[in-house]
Every structure is written in C-alpha cells, then in structure tokens.
Amino acid sequence: MSKTILVTGGTGFIGSWVVKYLLEEGNTVRLTLRNKGNKAKYEFLESIAIKSGAKLEIWEADLLKEGCFDEAAAGCDMIYHLASPFILKFSDAEKELILPALKGTENVLNAATKSKTVKRIVLTSSVAAIFGDNADMKEQGLKEFTEANWNTSSSATHQQYSYSKTLAEKRAWEMEKSQSQWSLVVINPSFVIGPSLEKSSNSGSLQFMNDLISGKYRMGAPNLEFSFVDVRDVAKAHILAAENTKTKGRFIIAAQELSMVELVKIIENAYPKKFKLPLMTAPKFSLFLVGWAFGLSNKFIARNVGHNISINSTKSKVELGIDYYPIEESVKDMIKTL
Ligand code: NDP
User: Fold this and answer.
1) Is 165 a catalytic residue?
2) Is the pLDDT of residue 291 over 90?
3) Residue 116: strand, helix, or coil
4) CATH fold of 4-337
5) Do the beta carbons of residue 84 and residue 168 sit within 8 Å?
6) H-only helix segments in 28-135
7) Mean pLDDT of 135-160
8) Cβ–Cβ contacts within 10 Å for residue 310, how many?
9) Distance between CA atoms of residues 304 and 299, nearest Å
10) 89-138 residue pLDDT tens
11) Which candidate, 261, 146, 249, places its Cα nearest to that of 137?
12) Which one of the listed residues 20, 41, 165, 236 is annotated catalytic?
C-alpha cells in the first residue's frame, strides 16, 4: 500500500536513489532541502515521479533550525533521515559537521514524535560510527568489525566526520528508548561509490573519486584500505529495512575491502590509459612530510595508512537479502556518471 514518506537528504548522492526507489513503488515522497529555489537539485526526481505516477512534494528545512521538520513530518508514515554533511574539507568541524549531524537528528526525530503518525524511522549512520581509525581493529583485539562495535577513537579534533556520525547515531538510539510511537532501524554503510543520479552533490564519495581520476594522487597513493559498497545496494537496504518492521538494530552495508591501489587497478582495467591515476603506493614516511598537502594529519596517517580492516556485513545478506553489486561494476558506472 502506498505510504507518505519524509526523506531528508533526498537531494544527495545516496538519498536521490532512495527517493527514486520509493517513487517507483508508488509512494508519496516529501523531500526536504535547504533551498527550494535550487530546482536543479530535484528536477530529475520530479521527472521520475511523473514517470512513476507518484507524488513528490518539495519542502524546505535546515538541520540546524529547531522545529523545521515538524510540518513536513505531520501525517507521514515513515521517515528516512539521510541529511548530514559528508564533506572532506571544512574549517570549523563543530559548525559544519558535528552540530548539523547531532542537532539535525534531534530535530527530525522530535518531528516524528510530534507528528503522532510516524511509526518507523530509518537513520543513515555509517561504519564511521562503528570504528574511527583502521588501527582500532587490532587495538580492540578484533578480527573484524560487526554491528556490535562502536567508534571510541574519534573526537572533536580527530576524524571529526566519524565523530559527528557516532554522536548522532547514539542520540537516535537514546531518543528511541524514550518513546513508544516509532521504531528505529539504522543503516551503517561503508564508503559508497556507484552511479550518481544528480549533478551537484558535495558528497565526499564523489569528491574522492574525482580527486583520484583527476591526478591528485599521481605521485603516489597512500596505502589506505577502505570498504566500498554500491549506492544502489545502500538505497535498497534502506527500503528493505524500513518495510520489514521485524528488522531491528544496526545494519552494516559493505561489499568489499580494497586498498586505494587495488581500486586504481580496477579503474585502469575499465578505462585503460584514460586518467592520471597514481603511479605507485606512496611510502608511509613520505606521507608524514607531504600529507598536509592532501589534508592528512600525522595522527590520521599513523593510525590508518598500512592498517588493514575487515568488515562483516553478513547480517545485511541474511536479514535483508542484499546481494551486493561487484565493485568493478560500481566503479565503472560511477566514472561514467562523473
Ligand atoms: P550528499 O552530500 O550527497 O548529501 C547530503 C544531503 O544532506 C543533501 O541532501 C543535503 O541537502 C543534506 N544536508 C546537508 N547539510 C544540511 C543541513 N544543514 N540542513 C539540511 N540538509 C542538509 O551526501 P551523501 O549522499 O553521500 O550522504 C548522505 C548520508 O549518508 C549522510 O548522512 C552521510 O553521513 C551518510 N553516509 C555517506 C557515505 C558515503 O560514502 N557517501 C557512507 C556512509 C554514510 P541540501 O540539498 O540542502 O544540500
């Protein structure tokens, strides 16, 4: 049955895929963004709504303004809360990352309670709320990260984005416990890649891939390992977790761990000689000298470069039935849309 659903962050890299799938199912979607006048951010979603015969409503709301989501949430059955800054460059972490993540979550969840109609909330957290640095795994005596783990190494001065996601997710669980109207399920994606539906996102995902193919790491890529996942799998996971109200807790959504150099090989195989890709792995000692030029602090380099990670996403396969896209396909499709 068609539902009325509020999606925050629906103009973003991940959110636009969530909105597309919800519209294609025939739901009424209420999309919030900060500036309604910026039509380029949602015109492509209006076309999808028309094609699907579904309704798309556009609302203005800012994470930092208290009460801002109340009207949009009134009468909704569900909320997908994706809005949160995922930016690689910032000058004031408190203002640009931590407050929007934390206050935004409080605002949206309070709006849900005030609506009296919202029964289910999906919050987009991140594996960044599970661990902060790759070194955490060994330090905590773990063989892999699972949904049971929490990031304890990030702070307001180190890995601030991860800190913002950890604070926001913790706050959401506290707020769930204090009421009985709605249930919460949390999606914890790893680094998201894949095709972008929209053109103006500042998502760290798009920035990272653009940097990689445009020659930023030409002289050498840091030996950094990430876990990657396709944006279409992340969006589907949101919808499956919302609709199956028996699902509980957190869901790591992650397909494969790869070093930057392994990722570069995949790009080179898909698009031979097309991009100025890194020529080699940069030695760790050299990064301590030049890392600042790439925005890498010495503490980040020490605790991440050369440290392997393993992320267990079995729960998503068993309970949500996610069959992950091969990363080679995600990379190819992402570069096509860039
Ligand atoms: P985008 O930058 O593409 O999207 C961010 C969205 O958040 C935009 O829709 C933007 O809306 C909204 N937003 C940002 N700041 C505010 C604000 N102050 N008030 C209202 N809305 C705001 O990022 P992604 O799609 O990559 O990320 C979406 C979510 O997924 C985030 O919560 C992020 O932390 C999480 N995530 C992302 C991962 C990734 O690899 N990309 C990995 C794991 C989690 P507007 O149109 O107004 O700008």
Assistant:
1) yes
2) no
3) coil
4) Rossmann fold (3.40.50)
5) yes
6) 43-52, 70-73, 93, 99-115
7) 98
8) 14
9) 8
10) 899 999 999 999 999 999 999 999 999 999 999 999 999 999 999 999 99
11) 146
12) 165
Question: Residue 48: which region, alpha, beta or left (left: phi > 0; alpha: psi -120 to 50)?
Answer: alpha
Beta carbons within 8 Å of 200's beta carbon, 6+ residues apart: 38, 40, 41
At 338, list the tokens. 């860039």
Which residue from 210, 269, 163, 227 is spatially nearest to 13, judged by alpha carbons?
210
Tell me the C-alpha distance between 262 and 277, whole Å: 12
Q: Which residues contact 54 (CB under 8 A, 6 or more apart)?
A: 2, 22, 23, 24, 25, 26, 27, 28, 29
**Angle at CA of residue 333, ends 327 and 335, nearest 5°:** 105
- Report the relative pairing of strands 256-259 and 225-230 from DSSP bridges: antiparallel
Q: Which atom of ligand 1 is nearest to the CA of 201?
A: 3
| pLDDT of 275 | 97
Length of the chain: 338
Cα 327 to ligand 1 centroid, rounded to whole Å? 22
User: What is the residue whose two structure tokens read 């801002």?
Assistant: 68
For residue 128, give the DSSP letter: G
DSSP 156: S
Distance from Cα 256 to the centre of ligand 1, integer Å: 22
User: Does pLDDT of 195 surpass 90?
Assistant: yes
**Average pLDDT for residues 4-23, to the nearest whole number?**
98
pTM attached to this predicted model: 0.98
Residue of 47, 44, 41 whose CA lies nearest to 12:
41
> Using CA atoms, how far apart are residues 239 and 289, in angstroms rounded to an integer?
45
Q: Are 196 and 13 in contact (CB under 8 A)?
A: yes
Ligand 1 pocket by C-beta < 6 Å: which residues? 9, 11-15, 33-34, 41, 62-64, 82-86, 100, 124, 126, 165, 189, 191-192, 201-205
Those residues with Cβ within 8 angstroms of residue 195's Cβ, 6 or more apart along the chain or in another chain = 231, 232, 333, 334, 336, 337
C-alpha separations of 262 from 131, 199, 212, 325 in Å? 22, 27, 12, 17
Residue 290 has pLDDT above 90, yes or no: no
